[in-house]
């Protein structure tokens, strides 16, 4: 695995860097296969994608979108990640709703996770960990990524592709999330994180050598590429500064 860290001076540069990498990864993948399978995250990532993806040159009909995690709330709730993509992304990027593989928010959390894994199984080879072409991840100020939180037993999940969580320390409490073995099987993972409120956490993730690493520090795709895109605020505690 190779890790590349890019520090950008402002939001325009972040969007450009992120979308250049996404364009390269999509075109490289679509030269070899007929589908580009992307895992999306929620939070601050959405605005960068909405700003940058419209200018990406690719065959959008071949993209399939999944969620790295999703909050178990109705799609019209402000906390819903798919709800946010439906509201903000679909009006800017030339893709259709049926290109998104979404959870069933009417189910209980255990059933929603099992149902989402079954939906994934239709797009990946059974009996192996799913191999996403690209995962787009964010990091919370506590070092969580997806809905994998520091010290949570889900960090040890080694069987399921998708796990339920009903005690998320960040609301809403019920969510479903991809597990670490899935994240670490991807062809390419891009983290995007901004703001100096996350600077100490980013230092712990990228430079710490901790006995119990933060969840985002556990994402190290075995055979894939790992990119970190930061702004100067998020990077301000790194040794390079
Ligand atoms: O709760 C969540 O938070 C993380 C980080 O969000 P950010 O706004 O701090 O970038 C996000 O990646 C995840 O998808 C979401 O459910």
Automatic annotation (TrEMBL):
Signal peptide: none annotated. It is an enzyme of class 3 (hydrolase). InterPro entries: 6-phosphogluconolactonase_DevB, 6PGL, Glc/Gal-6P_isomerase, NagB/RpiA_transferase-like. Pathway: Carbohydrate degradation; pentose phosphate pathway; D-ribulose 5-phosphate from D-glucose 6-phosphate (oxidative stage): step 2/3. It catalyses: 6-phospho-D-glucono-1,5-lactone + H2O = 6-phospho-D-gluconate + H(+). Its EC number is 3.1.1.31. Pfam families: Glucosamine_iso (PF01182). The keyword Hydrolase applies. It comes from the Eukaryota. Residues 10-228 form the Glucosamine/galactosamine-6-phosphate isomerase domain. Keywords: Hydrolase. The keyword Nuclease does not apply. Hydrolysis of 6-phosphogluconolactone to 6-phosphogluconate. Belongs to the glucosamine/galactosamine-6-phosphate isomerase family. 6-phosphogluconolactonase subfamily. NCBIfam families: pgl. This is 6-phosphogluconolactonase.
């Amino acid at each position: 695995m190779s890790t590349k860290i890019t520090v950008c001076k402002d939001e325009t540069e972040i969007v450009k860097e992120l979308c250049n990498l996404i364009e390269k990864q999509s075109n490289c993948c679509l030269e070899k296969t007929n589908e580009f399978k992307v895992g999306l995250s929620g939070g601050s990532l959405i605005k960068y994608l909405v700003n940058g993806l419209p200018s990406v040159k690719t065959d959008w009909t071949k993209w399939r979108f999944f969620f790295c995690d999703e909050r178990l709330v109705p799609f019209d709730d402000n906390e819903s990640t798919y709800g946010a993509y439906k509201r903000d992304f679909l009006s800017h990027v030339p893709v259709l709703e049926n290109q998104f593989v979404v959870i069933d928010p009417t189910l209980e959390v255990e059933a929603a996770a099992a149902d989402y894994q079954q939906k994934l199984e239709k797009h990946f080879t059974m009996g192996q960990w799913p191999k996403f072409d690209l995962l787009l991840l964010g990091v919370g100020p506590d070092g969580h990524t997806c809905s994998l939180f520091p010290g949570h037993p889900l960090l040890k999940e080694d069987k399921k592709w998708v796990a339920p969580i009903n005690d998320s320390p960040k609301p809403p409490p019920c969510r479903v999330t991809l597990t670490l073995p899935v994240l670490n099987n991807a062809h390419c993972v891009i983290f995007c994180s901004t703001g100096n409120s996350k600077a100490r956490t980013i230092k712990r993730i990228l430079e710490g050598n901790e006995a119990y690493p933060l969840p985002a520090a556990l994402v190290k795709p075995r055979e894939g590429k790992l990119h970190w895109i930061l702004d100067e605020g998020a990077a301000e505690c790194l040794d390079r500064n």
